[in-house]
């Protein structure tokens, strides 16, 4: 039986939106200064034959790869770049030793036939030969090569850091026009470099921090950008010309009139109070664009012939996968005894308004509760101390400032790092928690 027009449009919409969300364009919206810095570095390598090296450092999801891709896309519009520049992408998870890295670099530089069966005495000789092969004409000009090293910190684990040493050495000595860009989430990456490697690195570090979009941008403005992205990613082309330019998918031709109606509905979602509060809460938990796109992809996947519209409830349901508090999840994995101690800590903190406590105080509070509830089986003090130590090792507790480490364990003071809301949410979600313990969490007992 033939699929009717509406059903067909919904299936095409789902296909189009998933591609749009999961295959992002290389437009880069933030970190303007940092992007310009990288752009200028690569331009100088391409246009003036200047060699450079730099590290792009930031947590996962901060936009390092998107920034690099957007710069390379902009440079690709330059004829000199397009015709002469070579880009070599190496990844620390894939190229686990220097031999693999050099072999793939040879392939990406299209020099496999030139190398052939040649045998080189050292890694340096091999790499130098490759760069010499790129020289043209009077041998004074060589094709610029841009090395992009993703998961840069993993290359620091290679034997003697030979690859890094030679790349930085070539960049520093200007033997050939190369630019080495390392991407990593390790803030201490410089400390991982051997002394001889460090001495050849430019020490140019460019940091990307989520939310650090520009000095003038306010949090409200940053969230407004997220709302705009939400509308953009869920919108369809509603004009035939835009359709041809933007889509780039022959198998996803969306009817312009259908697209216009769809986009009007998406606008109502952007102004929906429940929707705004949901997106704001998710943004406060995780501001990375990658997680946000994954969230939208899950929502869009719910579209079908039987479910032809994205309801607010679809977003609410999908958000549960992305807005869970890691600490709450960890609490749900504790033993019942450990959960009791957590509740005792919550009460102790609530009653004494955030003052630090020691094991002795928590032990007394737990024993008092256990004695008042015959269904709760008491355990020996060393077992309770072990449970307390486990909670401390999970970093739910922080030693109070001025604590003397020579004091016996049970009298050392700690600050509780969980909120009452986190504890209560874990109690609510904890499967099989005895009713008495759940009720104890709800009532403050002196």
Furnish the topology, listing elements before pairings.
Elements: H1 5-22, H2 32-48, E1 52-57, H3 64-75, H4 79-84, E2 86-91, H5 98-108, H6 112-115, H7 123-133, E3 135-136, E4 141-142, E5 145-150, H8 152-155, H9 162-173, E6 178-184, H10 189-192, H11 195-198, E7 205-207, H12 219-234, H13 240-247, H14 256-270, H15 273-285, H16 289-300, H17 312-322, H18 326-331, H19 336-351, E8 357-358, H20 359-372, H21 381-393, E9 397-399, E10 413-416, H22 420-429, H23 435-442
Parallel strand pairs: 1-6, 1-7, 2-5, 5-6
Antiparallel strand pairs: 3-4, 8-10, 9-10
InterPro entries: AAA+_ATPase (IPR003593), ATPase_AAA_core (IPR003959), ORC4 (IPR016527), ORC4_C (IPR032705), P-loop_NTPase (IPR027417)
Family: Belongs to the ORC4 family.
Function: Component of the origin recognition complex (ORC) that binds origins of replication.
Q: Could you characterize what this model shows?
A:
With 446 residues, the chain is α/β, with parallel strands linked by helices. It has helices at 5-22, 32-48, 64-75, 79-84, 98-108, 112-115, 123-133, 152-155, 162-173, 189-192, 195-198, 219-234, 240-247, 256-270, 273-285, 289-300, 312-322, 326-331, 336-351, 359-372, 381-393, 420-429, 435-442; strands spanning 52-57, 86-91, 135-136, 141-142, 145-150, 178-184, 205-207, 357-358, 397-399, 413-416. The chain folds into 3 domains: 7-21 and 216-323, no CATH class; 31-207, 3-Layer(aba) Sandwich (Rossmann fold), CATH 3.40.50; 328-442, Arc Repressor Mutant, subunit A, CATH 1.10.10. It contains 23 helices and 10 strands. The strands form 3 sheets. It has a 5-stranded parallel sheet with strand order 2-5-6-1-7, with helices on both faces. Strand 3 and strand 4 form a beta hairpin.
